[in-house]
Amino acid sequence: MVDNNHQVKHQQTSPEWGPTAWTHLSTVRTQSPLIQCITNFVSMDLMANTLLSAGASPAMIHSLQEIPDFTPRAAALCVNVGTLTAEWLPAMRAAAEAAGRAGKPWVLDPVAAGVSGFRLEACRELVGMRPTVVRGNGSEILALANASVGPSKGVDSSHESTDAVEAAKSLAKSSGCIVAVSGAVDFVTDGQRVVGAQNGVAMMQKITATGCSVTALIAAFVAIDPLHAFEATATALSIFGIAGEIGMDMAKGPASLRVHLIDSLYGLDQDTVVRRVNIISFS
Prior knowledge:
With 283 residues, this protein is α/β, with parallel strands linked by helices. It has helices at 17-31, 44-54, 67-70, 89-102, 117-127, 138-146, 165-175, 210-224, 229-248, 254-267, 270-276, and strands spanning 10-13, 34-38, 57-59, 76-80, 106-109, 133-137, 178-182, 186-189, 194-197, 279-282. Strand 7 and strand 8 (186-189) form a beta hairpin. The longest helix has 20 residues, at 229-248.
């Protein structure tokens, strides 16, 4: 948790997280779950390549007319409101409803949730449709939890992830969703438990759509282990962070890190995952 001084108190890393993360990644590679992504124009390329490099099968289908036929056949749905328009919102609603009826997990990325009344109301409506997981940065989760529109840096967060832990817990309790807050430490909560995935490098924040892409990866992990969405969310965040760490060893800047991130995710092996996963339980 976070105390009154916003200092995080933590316990030791559980030794089971590494093997669990490898089981999730190897199962994604074996099963190649079909992940439908209704996402923004900026992120489509990196999201699709992230899913492919992890072993999943991406489908960037957002047409309202295709939702009834396609969404029930997908293993999971990822909804990202980055370039939200009034024309796209009905498809997002319809896909969330279709996933719910079919018993398929779905994940919401409430990009820049507090930047406008229209966007905040759309995100609140989608949260009310019971996504399996909501993943956002500190500012986005605070906006959703407080239902407030305020000054924003667009898609960038003006709050640290530690600032939003209590808000994430409240949102998880009120919505019944797993809530993940990305930042220097990626926090995951179900309203009671809180863990922090501490993998990753700061330069990943300089690459457009890394947040969007890890949300898609969460959808793939939840697709293959829907009964353990909390654990799947944490391991997806850690795996993506490890790929960033390895990619950073070869990168010269954000552009080359983008390439090496994808290559590193594709090449992860069991020893590397088990050894490098850094997920801590917080008290």
